[in-house]
Design brief:
The complex is a heterotrimer of chains A (306), B (402) and C (291). Chain A has 306 residues and is mainly alpha-helical. In chain A, 70% of the residues lie in helices and 1% in strands. Chain A is built from 12 helices and 2 strands. The termini of chain A are far apart. The relative contact order of chain B is 0.17. Classes of the chains: A mainly alpha (306), B mainly alpha (402), C alpha/beta (291). Chain A: This is Branched-chain amino acid ABC transporter permease.
Chain lengths: 306, 402, 291
C-alpha cells in the first residue's frame, strides 16, 4: 500500500476520532470529569443506527454510495446516544454527591451497564450494516489510493458536523455560554447563565457527536459491543494530546491520533518490526509521552501541573 | 463499635467481637460472609460442589483479597486511580509462568520461588515506568494512562509469541511448592479419604484436593504477610502523609512532603502486591493466558475495594468475598436453563450496577477505615488523651461521610 | 518545639516566653527572635506571572523582615493569592526570583520551599476526610523518620519515640490554642474558624521561619478571629515571622506592621499601617478595584 493510501485511511479514521474527541472534551470541561462511558455511548449510537437501518435500509436514492436510509439511521443513532446520555446525566450523575474522581469511577459502571445491555440484546459477535461494499473510486486508483465513496461520506459528514459545531460555539448565544461555562462555571453562574441548561446541551451535543462517531466507526469497520470501549482509549489519547477541555485541541488531537493510528504500517514498511496490532498501543505511548513533556497538551496553555 | 487498641482488633473485629457490639452494617457484612460460606459448605456436603473446587474457590477469595489489598494501598490510602490492576496481576502471573511453565518459549523448569521474585520485580519496574509520567499530574490522568497501559501490556503479551506463546498461553506450570522438601510430595503422600456427611453424597478427598489445600495454605501465608506489612506501615507517619495526599495533595506539599515520592511508593507497593496475587494465580490455575489481562478483572477488584471501604483492610477482605459471590452467582444463574443469559454480559452488568450503586448511595464503602494513622505503641505511651476519653471520629457507622 | 519542653508544661499559653527560651537552647528555628530586624527572611524580586495574556503579577518586589508580621492587602483581583502561589512554589513564575533565608527557591517545588522554612496555609482548606484533628496535626512536623517506608520496618523504636514526642507537642500546642479538647474529633466536624486555628497550630509543628497565612479570618466569627489574632501576636513574640493576606482591614491594621499594598499585580505602597491608611493611592486603588 502506498503512503497516500495510509493518509487517506488516516483521514477517514481521524474523522471518527475527531467526532468522539470533541464530545469527550466538551463533557470533560463542563461536567468536570473524565467520562469513561463515552466510548460505550458510541456503541449505543452504532447499534441504534443498526436497528433503524434494518427498517429503513432500502429507503430512497443513494448519496455518496449510501442509501438515504443510512442517513436516517445515522440521525436516529445520534438521537438515541444523546437521549441515553441525557437520561444518565439527569437521573444518575446529577444526583451524585461525589467529587470528579467519584464521577469518573461511576462512569465506568455506566459504561459496563450500557455494554452489558447491548450484549444481552445483540450478542457479542461482530455485525455489519450490510451495505454493499463499494469498489474503490476509479479516479484515485492511479495515485495508489483505494478509497470508496463510503469513506468520502464519512469524511464529508464529519466535516459538516465539525463545521456546525464551530458555528454553534462561535456565533450563537448557546455556544458563547457553553464556552464561558467551560472556562469558569462559577463565574458563568454569577453572570446569570443557566448552567444547568448549558450542561444539558453539552451532554446532548457531546453524546450526539459520539453517536455519530460510533455509526461511522461501524460503517468503517464493524459493529460489536466492545467497539466503543476499545476505541475509548484512543479517544482519550486524542483529548490529552489536544489538551483536556479544549474543543479545538480535541479536533487537532483527534486528527493527529487518527493519522498516526493508520500510518502505523509504515513502520513495518521501513523495517521497524512493530505491526499494525500495536496501532492503538502507539497512541497510548504518544499520550504518555505528551503527558511527560506537555501535561496540558499541544494546544493547551501552561500552568501548574498539579 | 467498641474500640480496643489491641493489635488484632482490625482483623478480628468482624469475627471475635460479640455480635451485638457490632454496628448494623458490620452485622450485615458478617451475615453475608457467613451466609456465603454456609452456601459453599452446603454445596460441599450435598455434593453439588466438589471438595477440590471448594478449595479452589477459597484460594480465589484469597487471591482477590490480595488484589484488593494492593489496590487499597493505592486508591484507598493515597487516592491513586489505578485501572491497570489486571496488568500488574498478569505480569506477576506471566513473570513466574515464563520461568516455570513446560511450554515457556524462554525458560521453563526453573524454581517457582525465583518466578515469584521475577514476577514482583516486573511489576515494580512497570509501576515506576507508568508512575513517572503520570503521578505528577492530576489524579484522572493516571486513570486514563493506566487503562491505556494495561491495554499495551495485554497487546504485547498477546502478540509477542516468541516470548509469551501468544494467545495459546502458557501451560504446564508447576505447583508453587515443586521442588520443596515434604510439601512438593504432600498431595501424593496424603491418604484418600471418603467422608459422608449427607448420606448418598460422599465427599471424596484425593490428591487434587490436597493440592488445592496446599494452595489455600499458600495464599493464606501471602495474605497474612501482606496484611501484617500493610498494618505496620499504614498506621504511621507514612500512612498519614498518604491519607493527607488523598484528601488534599496541595496541603501535603505545602507542609513539606514530597508528594510525588510518596505517591510513587504507594503505587509501587500496591502493584507488587497485585503481582503477588498473580504469582499465586499462576501456580493455582497452572495455566495463564492473555485473557487474564482483560479489563473486567481490574474492575472486579475495584468493586471489592470501593464496596469494602476504601482505605480499610477488613473492607478489602470483605470485598474479596463479594467478588467470588458475583463470579459464582452469575455462573449459577447461567446454569438455570430458562434464563438464557450469557455469563459475560451478566457479570459485566453486575459489576457495572454495583459500581453505580456504591458510588451513588455509599461512596465511603460498607466498612470505612476506623483507625487513626498514628504509630500504635506511641499512642499508648504518649501523655495525651486516649481514644476512649473523648468521642472517636468514626465511632458511629458512616461517621466520615462528607 | 522540641522534646525538652515536655508534656508537663502546665499552661504554656500564660507563659509565652518559655518555649522561646527553650527552643533557643536546642537550636530551633526560633533563635531568629533575637536577630536584628534588618535580617530578611523572604525576598520577592521582580515577579511576573501571566495567565494567557492576563497579567496577574506584574514586577512585584518586596521583602519580609525577620520577626515582623507583614500584611499583604489590596483590592480584589490585585493578585495577592497568585503571589502566594508563586512564593510557595505552586505556580511557576515567568520572571523574577524568590529568596527564602538567603536561598534561591525560585524554581523549587513547594515541599522544598517548605523545607527551607516557609510554610503556607490555604484560603479555603479542604477538610481531611477520615482524619482526627491530632492526626491532621501530626502531618505538620518536618522530616519524620516514620515518613520513610524502610524506617517503619527497621527503626520502629525511633519512630515510636518521635511519634510520642510529636503527639505531645501537638496536644500542647492545641492546648495553647485552647482547643485541646478537639484533638480526637474528626477533622470534618470542625467549624471553619476552628479549622483555621488547627491549621495555624499544625503549621507551628512544622517549625516555620516564615508563615504565610491566606485570609486567616475569612468566614471566622469575631470571637475566634480575636483568638486567632492573639495567637498570631503571641507566636510572633516567640519569633515566628508572618506574611498575612487579609481582607478584614481592622484585623490586619491592628496586627501587622509593615503593610504591603498590592494593586494590579505590583506593589503600590509599603509602610506602617498609619502611612498606608493615609495614602491616597491606596484609597484610589480600592475604589478603582471595587468596580
Amino acid at each position: 500500500m502506498s503512503v497516500l493510501e495510509y493518509l487517506a485511511n488516516g483521514l477517514v479514521f481521524s474523522s471518527i476520532i475527531v467526532l468522539a474527541s470533541i464530545g469527550l472534551s466538551l463533557v470533560y470541561s463542563i461536567a468536570d470529569f473524565a467520562n469513561f462511558a463515552h466510548g460505550d455511548t458510541m456503541t449505543v449510537g452504532a447499534y441504534s443506527a443498526l436497528v433503524t437501518f434494518g427498517f429503513v435500509g432500502g429507503l430512497g436514492a443513494r448519496f455518496l454510495g449510501l442509501p438515504l436510509g443510512f442517513f436516517v439511521a445515522l440521525a436516529v443513532g445520534v438521537a438515541v446516544a444523546a437521549l441515553v446520555a441525557v437520561i444518565t446525566q439527569r437521573f444518575l450523575y446529577d444526583a451524585m454527591d461525589v467529587d470528579s474522581i467519584g464521577m469518573l469511577i461511576t462512569s465506568i459502571g455506566v459504561a459496563f451497564v450500557y455494554r452489558a445491555l447491548i450484549q444481552f440484546q445483540f450478542g457479542s459477535d461482530f455485525v455489519e450494516f450490510g451495505i454493499q461494499v463499494l469498489r474503490p473510486i476509479e479516479f484515485l486508483i492511479p495515485f495508489g489510493v483505494r478509497m470508496t465513496l463510503h469513506d468520502v461520506a464519512i469524511i464529508v459528514s464529519a466535516a459538516i458536523l465539525v463545521a456546525g459545531l464551530h458555528t454553534l460555539l462561535q456565533y450563537t448565544d448557546l455556544g458563547r455560554k457553553m464556552r464561558a461555562t467551560a472556562d469558569n462555571p462559577s463565574l458563568a453562574r454569577v453572570s446569570g447563565i443557566r448552567v444547568d441548561r448549558i450542561t444539558l446541551w453539552t451532554w446532548v451535543i457531546g453524546a450526539g457527536l459520539a453517536g455519530a462517531g460510533g455509526v461511522f466507526l461501524g460503517l468503517y469497520n464493524q459493529i460489536s459491543p466492545r467497539m466503543g470501549f476499545n476505541i475509548l482509549l484512543v479517544v482519550f489519547a486524542a483529548v490529552i494530546l489536544g489538551g483536556i477541555g479544549s474543543v479545538y485541541g480535541a479536533m487537532l488531537g483527534g486528527f493527529l491520533i487518527g493519522m498516526i493510528n493508520q500510518l502505523t504500517p509504515i513502520l513495518t514498511d521501513v523495517g521497524i518490526p512493530i505491526g499494525i496490532e500495536y496501532a492503538n498501543a502507539i497512541a497510548f505511548v504518544i499520550m504518555v509521552a505528551v503527558l511527560l513533556v506537555r501535561p496540558n497538551g499541544i494546544a493547551g496553555g501552561q500552568g501548574a501541573g498539579t | 463499635m467498641s474500640e480496643s487498641p489491641g493489635p488484632d482488633a482490625d482483623a478480628d473485629a468482624a469475627s471475635a467481637g460479640r455480635f451485638g457490639d457490632l454496628t448494623p452494617t458490620e452485622q450485615g457484612v458478617l451475615v453475608f460472609v457467613a451466609g456465603l460460606l454456609a452456601l459453599l459448605a452446603l454445596g460441599l456436603v450435598t455434593g453439588g460442589l466438589g471438595p477440590t473446587y471448594f478449595m479452589y474457590l477459597i484460594g480465589l477469595v484469597g487471591m482477590y483479597v490480595l488484589l484488593s489489598f494492593g489496590l487499597n494501598a493505592q486508591w484507598g490510602y493515597t487516592g491513586l486511580i489505578n485501572f491497570s490492576v489486571a496488568a500488574f496481576f498478569g505480569l506477576g502471573a506471566y513473570g513466574t509462568a515464563i520461568l516455570t511453565a513446560d511450554n515457556s518459549p524462554i525458560a521453563g523448569g526453573i524454581s517457582p520461588v525465583l518466578g515469584l521474585f521475577v514476577g514482583l520485580l516486573l511489576a515494580a519496574v512497570l509501576a515506576v515506568i507508568i508512575g513517572i509520567p503520570t503521578l505528577r499530574l492530576r489524579a484522572d490522568y493516571l486513570a486514563i494512562a493506566s487503562l491505556g497501559l494495561a491495554e499495551v501490556v495485554r497487546l504485547i503479551v498477546l502478540n509477542e509469541r516468541e516470548y509469551t506463546n501468544g494467545s495459546a498461553g502458557l501451560r504446564g506450570i508447576p505447583g508453587f511448592f515443586e521442588g520443596w522438601p515434604v510439601l512438593s510430595t504432600f498431595p501424593q503422600a496424603m491418604p484418600g479419604l471418603r467422608i459422608e456427611i449427607v448420606p448418598g453424597s460422599p465427599i471424596v478427598l484425593q490428591q487434587p484436593f490436597y493440592q488445592a489445600l496446599l494452595n489455600v495454605g499458600l495464599v493464606f501465608v501471602f495474605v497474612a504477610i501482606t496484611f501484617l506489612l500493610l498494618r505496620r506501615v499504614h498506621r504511621s507517619p507514612w500512612g498519614r502523609v498518604l491519607r493527607t495526599i488523598r484528601g488534599d495533595e496541595d496541603l501535603a506539599e505545602a507542609l513539606g512532603k514530597n508528594t510525588y515520592a510518596f505517591k510513587m511508593q504507594s503505587f509501587v507497593l500496591g502493584s507488587v502486591i497485585m503481582a503477588l496475587a498473580g504469582v499465586f494465580y499462576a501456580h493455582l490455575n497452572l495455566f495463564v493466558s492473555p485473557g487474564d489481562f482483560e479489563p473486567i478483572n481490574t474492575f472486579y477488584v475495584w468493586i471489592a475495594v470501593i464496596l469494602g471501604g476504601s482505605g480499610s483492610n477488613r473492607g478489602a477482605m470483605f470485598g474479596g468475598f463479594v467478588v467470588i459471590a458475583i463470579r459464582e452467582g452469575t455462573r449459577f444463574l447461567n446454569g438455570i436453563e430458562f434464563i438464557a443469559f450469557d455469563i459475560g454480559p451478566l457479570r459485566l452488568l453486575a459489576v457495572g450496577v454495583l459500581i453505580i450503586l456504591v458510588m451513588r448511595f455509599r461512596p465511603e464503602g460498607v466498612l470505612p477505615p476506623q483507625r487513626e494513622l498514628i504509630w500504635p505503641s506511641a499512642l499508648d505511651d504518649a501523655d495525651v488523651p486516649g481514644p476512649g476519653e473523648t468521642q472517636r471520629p468514626h465511632a458511629t457507622d458512616g461517621g466520615e461521610q462528607s | 518545639m522540641s522534646d525538652t519542653e515536655s508534656a508537663g508544661d502546665p499552661d504554656p499559653a500564660a507563659d509565652g516566653a518559655a518555649p522561646d527560651a527553650d527552643a533557643e537552647s536546642t537550636g530551633s528555628v526560633y533563635e531568629g527572635a533575637n536577630l536584628d530586624k534588618e535580617d530578611v527572611v523572604l525576598e520577592v524580586d521582580g515577579l511576573v506571572k501571566t495567565f494567557g495574556g492576563l497579567v496577574a503579577t506584574d514586577d512585584a518586589s518586596f521583602q519580609v523582615e525577620r520577626g515582623t508580621v507583614t500584611g499583604l492587602i489590596g483590592p480584589n483581583g490585585a493578585g495577592k493569592s497568585t503571589l502566594f502561589n508563586l512564593i510557595s512554589g505552586f505556580y511557576e513564575e515567568d520572571a523574577g526570583t524568590v529568596t527564602v533565608n538567603g536561598a534561591d527557591v525560585t524554581d523549587a517545588t513547594p515541599h522544598r520551599i517548605a523545607e527551607h522554612g516557609l510554610i503556607r496555609t490555604f484560603q479555603t482548606p479542604r477538610k481531611l476526610e477520615g482524619m482526627t484533628v491530632r492526626e491532621a496535626m501530626l502531618v505538620g512536623p518536618q522530616s519524620q523518620t516514620g515518613e520513610s517506608f524502610l524506617s517503619l520496618l527497621t527503626a520502629g523504636d525511633t519512630v515510636r519515640e518521635e511519634e510520642r514526642a510529636n503527639l505531645e507537642d501537638a496536644q500542647r500546642i492545641l492546648e495553647e490554642f485552647e482547643i485541646g479538647h478537639l484533638a480526637t474529633q474528626a477533622a470534618t466536624d470542625l467549624s471553619g474558624g476552628q479549622m483555621k486555628l488547627v491549621e495555624l497550630a499544625r503549621a507551628m509543628l512544622a517549625e516555620p521561619e516564615v508563615l504565610l497565612l491566606d485570609e486567616p479570618v475569612a468566614g471566622v466569627n469575631p470571637t475566634l478571629a480575636n483568638k486567632l489574632r492573639d495567637q498570631i501576636a503571641r507566636l510572633n513574640e516567640q519569633g515566628v515571622t508572618f506574611l498575612i493576606i487579609e481582607h478584614d482591614m481592622e484585623f490586619i491594621m491592628n496586627l501587622a506592621d509593615p503593610i504591603v499594598v498590592l494593586d494590579r499585580g505590583s506593589v503600590l505602597v509599603e509602610g506602617t499601617p498609619d502611612a498606608v491608611r493615609a495614602d491616597d493611592r491606596v484609597i484610589d486603588a480600592y475604589l478603582g478595584g471595587g468596580e
